[in-house]
Amino acid sequence: MPAKVAILLSGRGSNFLALHGAMERKEIPAEVALVISNVAEAPGLEKARSLRLPTVLLPHRLDPDREAHEDKVLAALEHAEVEWVCLAGYMRLLSAAFVARHPERILNIHPSLLPAFPGLNAQEQALEWGAKISGCTVHLVDEKLDHGPIVLQRAVPVHDDDNPISLSARILVEEHKVYPDALGRLLTERWRVVGRRVVFS
């Protein structure tokens, strides 16, 4: 049986489409059971609807606090019987209580070689620091920002004439490859968390 995966997104959803495409090509033994967005106008939400995937819109601004919002998200995940959660440009920091409901089953991708340049505008941070190499990281999610155990990383050289747009575009190409690769390996290989990294055996 394919694993049931939920995608949480707030924006364009390009990594969601990369994951879904890999599932459709049978490269990952999984299916998108639910797409959740906290932003009504998110292009990724509209793309999910056009693909006739189950979607839920849960605007966080309508809730009194983070706990109330996360309770709705968790209820939707439970209703869809989700086994894995993939964050794809989801601009919300998950609480420890949320993460505890899906331990070592929440994935995120970040456009830097963590622990370098966490948070927003990672590509701009890399350029400002004069980094010669950047890239992207798939990691398990914990309660801290861009902090959980690292699953896979891909390096991308920083060119002397790069700007945030050009660097972001080259990193995004690698994101679309490494995210499906990471999820596929987690679903098909034996692995364990050792310190701050995921070790495949």
Largest sheet: 7 strands, mixed
CATH topology of the largest domain: Rossmann fold
What is the overall number of helices? 6
**CATH first level of the largest domain:** Alpha Beta
In the CATH hierarchy, the architecture of the largest domain is 3-Layer(aba) Sandwich
Query: For the largest beta sheet, what order do the strands appear in spatially?
Result: 3-2-1-4-5-6-7
Helical residue percent?
Answer: 25-40%
Number of strands: 9
Q: What would you call the structural class? A: alpha/beta
Q: What integer value in Å does the Rg equal?
A: 16 Å
What shape does the CA trace take?
globular
Run of helices and strands: EHEHEHEHEHEEHEE
Low-confidence stretches: none
- Average per-residue pLDDT, rounded, comes to 96
What is the fourth-level CATH superfamily of the largest domain? Answer: Formyl transferase, N-terminal domain
Number of domains: 2
Describe the structure.
- Helix 1 (14-24) runs parallel beside helix 6 (164-188).
- It is globular and about 50 Å long.
- It has 201 residues and is α/β, with parallel strands linked by helices.
- The longest helix is centred in the C-terminal third of the chain and has 25 residues, at 164-188.
- The chain folds into two domains: 1-103, Formyl transferase, N-terminal domain (Rossmann fold, 3-Layer(aba) Sandwich); 108-201, 3-Layer(aba) Sandwich (Rossmann fold).
- It starts with a strand and ends with a strand.
- A seven-stranded mixed β-sheet has the order 3-2-1-4-5-6-7, sandwiched between helices. Strands 8-9 form a two-stranded antiparallel ribbon.
- The chain has six helices and nine strands.
- It has helices at residues 14-24, 43-50, 66-79, 96-101, 122-128, 164-188, and strands at 3-9, 30-37, 55-57, 84-87, 106-110, 133-140, 150-157, 191-194, 197-200.
